[in-house]
Design brief:
The chain has about 325 residues and is mainly α. About 65% of the residues lie in helices and about 5% in strands. It has a three-stranded antiparallel β-sheet with strand order 1-2-3, with no helix packed on it.
Amino acid sequence: MVTSLPQVPCGKGACRGQAEEPCGATIRRVLGDGSVTLASVGNPLAAAGHPQIHWLPDPLVLLPLAALTIVYVRRFRTVRQEAGGGKVRGAGAPQAAAFGGAMLALLLALASPIDGLGEDYLFLMHMLQHVLLGDIAPVLLLLSLSRVLLRPITRRLMSLERRLGPFASPVTGLALWLSLMYLWHVPALYEAAIEHPLVHLLEHASFFTAGLAVWWPLIQPIPMRRRLNGLWTVAYIGTAKFGLAALGLYLTWSTSVLYPYYESVPRIWGLDAISDQNAGGAIMMVEQSLTFVIALVVLFVAMLRQSEADELRRERLEDAAAAGS
């Protein structure tokens, strides 16, 4: 037996897609054994039995992803055809796999239930979306690029770098990353992004731009004039990753709700607003820490390979000199 109790106000989007019960009603379900459970349709004081799952909430998000995919695939095929179908350094399986991973990360962030769950129910899902948009998708996209793939626009990018002067440096990328990430987690801006679609779009674009800016000096699909060298690379990675992990640490151990919006939405999965906020902070902190470790491992392997290549070159020069004498 199902009965409806008096209606109460519901949070934005919490009742999106509800058709069986009126928005704001608390549903009392009497089970077969006589026990009673409450399922909220917008009541922040009771737990929602089953969250509304939304796939592809806005089909328009597919347009830029489709356009990017078409451009990349056409350029990739052109480079391969110009090489006669043989192996091309910078246009092989690793680049193709990285591009596929970048598109998957963007689809998960923008077209999967992660988007709706983060907007209607859980801070932790919104944080997962931010991680996908601001870190994982940008790094994979940059790994999918190379000099040969970017050849048609290389001169334009180098010209832009010259015009930017001292601003075209790793310091700028680091500053953009930390400032934009912290700025959008200011409660007023964070909640404005949830409430207003255009602000939300700007937030997503800012995260993606910040990710590209911070990873470009490390991956450098086109070499920069002002590069990172030696231990400066480690310092750069550490500042970027642990600089943002500090925010995740604060959210993980916070005991007061930083974003009041999540106090007014239905609670799901047995998480109250504080536990939800702590879990979201843990996602940010752990992801930043893991990314730091992975980046260091990749950097160390690259240094070993470069050292081996230098040693082989030195041996060849010594052998050539000995043979000439």
